[in-house]
Design brief:
alpha+beta; 3-stranded antiparallel sheet; two-stranded antiparallel sheet
Length: about 90
């Protein structure tokens, strides 16, 4: 598995092949959330719930699975400081 370290932000990001291989081991809900994030770049949890039609608890679990494997990252929402936006750390295509 190849990792590249970003010098500006101390985060690891996988190359696309390794990321997709890692994604294949995750739950179906995590795969769905990853696909929706790929199509929409940055989304909040409530936006993910609306787009995936999954319950909030399932979305939280899916996002945590992605974050634990360095496939997704969170950012403060530019519109509401109480919320986080999620995005993928790799290009699917």
């Amino acid at each position: 598995m190849q990792y590249s370290i970003s010098s500006s932000r101390n985060t690891r990001s996988l190359d696309a092949d390794s990321a997709i291989e890692e994604l294949s081991t995750l739950s179906p809900s995590a795969k769905l959330v990853a696909k929706v994030l790929d199509d929409n770049s940055r989304l909040t949890q409530s936006q993910l719930e609306n787009k995936t039609l999954l319950p909030g608890r399932t979305v939280r679990s899916a996002v945590n699975q992605l974050k634990d494997r360095n496939l997704a990252e969170s950012h403060p929402s530019p519109f509401d400081a109480r919320k986080q936006c999620y995005s993928l750390m790799f290009n699917w295509k």
